[in-house]
Structures are given as C-alpha cells and as structure tokens.
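Many introductory courses stop at the sequence. We go one step further.
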Amino acid sequence: MRAKTLQIIWHSKDPVFSIDFHPDGYFATGGADREIKIWELSCAADGTPGVRHAASLEGHNATVNCVRFSKTGHYMASAGDSGEVIIWKPIPAAGTAAADGSGSPRSVTPPLIPGSAAAAATSGGALASTPAREAAAEAADSSREENAVRGLRWKMAHTLRGHHDDVTDIAWAHDDAVLLTGSVENEVMLFDVHSRQNLQRLLGHRHYVQGVAWDPLGAWLVSASADRSVRVHGLKPPPSGGKGSTAVKSSVQLAREFIHSATLLKRAVQAPATPPRDAAAPASPVAAASSARRCSCYSSRWQHSTAAAAAAAGGAGQASAGVPLSG
C-alpha cells in the first residue's frame, strides 16, 4: 500500500489553528494570517490524492482561532483574537444557480472517490477524452476564476458582537439557528445567528474557556476551561407540580432556558510524603493525625497506629511513632 501525505502551507507559513469539513466534502482552514481558506480534495484514477486551494476569505482583523460549518452546510462561522464572530453564507457564483429548494445554495457535485469514473474523468485517466472530463475542467476553471468552490462563493453575511477578547471555540445548534461561543473572558455566550442577539451569557469558569460543545439533541451544553473544569448546562426543569410542554422548540427558544447542572472537576492531588527513616522519630500531633488518614498513600512498609493518631488529635501531647510492618 502506498500513502501520500499532503501538506498545506498557504497560510503565509503561519500557524493553522482550525479546520472543519463541509457536508459536501471540501474543508476550510483558519490561521494566524487572519484568513480563511477553502480547499477541494480529489483523487486520480490510481487513487493518488490531491488538494486544490479554491478560495480565500478575508474579514478578520486578527488571528482566526476557529472555523465551523453549520450542520446543514448553509452557513460557516469563524472566530478570532479580535472578539468578533463572522457568519459566512454561500451564494451562487457567476453563471450558476441555487440548487436547494430552501433558497440556500448547496453543491450538487459529490466528493470524488478513488477509482470512480468521476475521479478518472477529472484526472486524465481512462475517460480523459469524454465530455464529462471537459465539463469538469470547465467548471474547475470557472471556480478558479471566481474564487469559488463547486459553483459557490462564500460571502460575509454579518458579524456577531459581544466578546471583547479572543474567542477560542464555537459550536452550532442542530438547527443552525444558535451559535455557542467560548472566550478568554472566562465566559460562554449563545447568539441568535439571524437576529444577531446575545441570548444568554453563561458564567462560572475561573480561567479561559478553551472548548464548547452542543449535544446533538439540543438538551445539553458543555464548556471546558483552563481552570481544569468542565461545566455542564441543562434545560430548566418544569415548575414544581407542573408538566413540561410537549411542543417542539427551536434552539432560539431553548437558549434562554439553560442553567448550570454540574461541574466536573478533579482536584489536585498532593504528592505523598516520604516515610520517616527512623521509626522511632517523634512526629507532631497534627502530622500524626494527618498520617492516619492518608496512610494508604504512603509506602506499604509503614502503618500508623490509629490509637496513637487519635490520642495525638485529642491533644494528649503524646507523639505517635510509625510502626514498621513485618516482612
């Protein structure tokens, strides 16, 4: 088996901080050069992979930390060090038309599969002289001219504002209506993508929020922070004695109902102390009582007397001595 590694160094050789796939098979990257770049993948007839730079998007004033396509692929969001979150939307490139009944353009060209006829047609394989190859080449040339990908040009729709410092991560709701964001301001925000309204601000972290995620069913939100904790938010329970509504709610309606449910936190564990070299060496009353509680963390060759520890904790003034185990 032969493998070929493709390397992308088009972000002015600056760091690339985020990458995400569109449902139609192409992907976007964001980096320290303040740009978003879109890439198309292809396969030759013999299975050799290839990648083509399809478009560059400008709009950020600082490093792009995160790029995320929405669940349906109708939108893309990007966030960076300047605090803004930009929403991008595809429009038909010159000479093309929307192919989606919803009014949002979607690509109708499937990803190329190694060994397929389409792959051969676009790579100069056995079908090199067929009309399919000529049509594919013409479409590719049009995309290059229009800075587009598969007949679509991604344009800035609007900007979501609320953060004043670096936005580190973003996550889409299942219906593309709400965006979840986390920042170095130690907070999480929920934005209505269409009205641009900040629906709720979730506080509680004591350090940078480094990751956010949305449950696919829309019932839970989680955020991870440099404070070594993960905060879980769930929907408010129905009033006492009442029944919850059975009506299906959109993510915009649910966004204001999230409350803190739990915090996952592993406290720092203190390294065990070194056992005393001299078994007869006296210990302070406080140390003796503490040793009785934590003896399981110490060397298995030592065991502290429970009675001596209790007496020491009770202020008897007697120091307990470690008793070595036999064998």
